[in-house]
Every structure is written in structure tokens, then in C-alpha cells.
Amino acid sequence: MVKGYRIILTLALCSLLFVPVMAQESQNRPYVDDKLFHFGFQLGVNFSSFGVTDSELEIEDPITGIKEIYHSRVSSVLPGFHVGFITDLRLCKYLNLRFCPGMQFTSRTLSYKTESGNPVKGSMGKGASVDVLAMPVYLPLYLKFSAMREGNYRPYVIAGGGASFNVSRDREKPVLMNLMDYFAEVGFGVDLYFRWFKFCPEITYRIGFANQLYPADKRMELAPQDAFYSNSISRLTNHSICLTFNFE
Question: Which 3 state secondary structure label does DSSP give 242?
Fold first, then answer.
């Protein structure tokens, strides 16, 4: 996850190199922020992880018959991407209300180990890890607080929250996610004014509140030797860092 943070910060710093250049140019689109409504679209990359809470229960391995306590953690995070649309309502000179629905593509790997150090058994190859894929459609509502415009740039902070719905679940995986989540999100960015549009790089941190783990005892198709992948966990919550490029 640390590597993902470094990539996000590097891309963000490269985007902010535009700021001093934009400040020295003549003012572009001087009245664009006076519109009551405006629209746009979003492209971005994200690094998503889980907050993992172990169940701390002794689970019997159906192959060996030995009871073990299993521990899980997120061992790797692959960069995902997201796309979305922007609907912006001007409330006053420094405050905007934004609705930005979109879709996110994420991948995480959960790794397992036993408290005693014995090898993890199961039918997933070596049995030590499980890939968890998700494609949530998110429906967030934000408040955007902007500073005074200087030349062709204008920094801002953004905060809000919303709900998401996972539209892709692989029931053959031993760990299955619930369909719905609720989240809060905070971040910052900068409006860069070009001749024909605004380009707005933005960094946000999103945290989910709903337990994303679908219980193993509700899954009839799950093989008994794979139930411990879910039974060893009591709670999964979503965490994401997103670098978004807004075009408005």
C-alpha cells in the first residue's frame, strides 16, 4: 500500500507543477465560476485496501482435523482506475455542491497465516492468499470550498460522502463482498484554467463504514475446505486513496 501512496503523490506533484506557470499567464475563462450549473467528467487512478478485523475463532481444518486460529491481512494492492461524471451547483462565491456518480475498478489480495505457523490448507493452490475484485458504482455528494482565484489557478478542499453498490461479484471466490457500502471522503485539489476548459487534479481519501464481508454460512456453493477464508474474518471495511483528474 505504501508503494501505491508514493505513486499517487508523485503524480499529484507533477500535476501541481502547472500552478506557477498558470499563475503567470493572462486570465482564462474569467466568468466560468459564475455559472449556476456546470458539468464535466472524471478520470483517475486509485489504490484501495481493506481494514481487516480477525474473528479470533478456532476453525477446524477439514483436511487435517486440526483447529487453528487464522489471521488475515492485505498483502498487495494493485492500482485500479475510476471514471465518473460531474454535476456542479454554485451555492456562493466560495462554495459549490457537487454530485459525481461513477464506477471504480479495484483489486486486493488477502493473505492468511495460522497462529501456530502451520501451512494454510484449502483448494486455492497454495492456499495462502485470495484475490478480491470489485467494481463499485458510487454515488457521492460533496461540498467544495474554494479559495480566491489567483491568475489561472484556484486551490480548494472537498468533503462529502455517499453510497456505493458493487456490481461485480465472483461467487466462486472463497471471500465474497457485500453489495452495498456507505463512505465519507475528504481531499484537496486545484482548479487550473485553460482557454477552453478547467483541468482540476484532486487527491481524496475515502473510508467505508459498512462490513463488506458476506458470511460463509449463507453461501451454499462454498466448499467446506474454503469456508475458513471467510470465517477467520469478522469485518472488512473499504479504504481508498484516489487521484482524480476533473475536466470541467
Answer: strand
Distance in angstroms (rounded) separating the CA atoms of residues 78 and 132:
11
- Residue 32, SS3? helix
Q: What is the DSSP string of 85-139?
A: EEEEEEEETTEEEEE--EEEEEEEEEEEEETT-PPPPSSSTTSSEEEEEE-EEEE
The pLDDT value given to residue 63: 65
Q: Please give the distance of CA 80 from its chain centroid, rounded to a whole number.
A: 9
Tell how strand 95-99 and strand 67-92 pair up. antiparallel
User: Whole-angstrom Cα distance, residue 148 to residue 130?
Assistant: 48
Yes or no: say if 94 and 146 are a contact pair by the CB < 8 Å rule: yes
Range of the domain at 211: 2-247
Element containing residue 70 per DSSP (H, E): strand 67-92
Within a 10 A sphere around the Cβ of 95, how many other Cβ atoms? 13
Confidence of residue 90 (pLDDT cuts 50, 70, 90): very high
Rg (CA), the chain: 22
Residue 21's domain is classified under what CATH number?
Answer: 2.40.160.20
Return the minimum-mean-pLDDT range out of 90-104, 135-149, 211-225: 211-225
- What per-residue confidence (pLDDT) applies to 25? 57
| Number of domains the chain contains | 1
Which pTM value belongs to this model?
A: 0.82
* The three cell numbers locating residue 65: 482435523
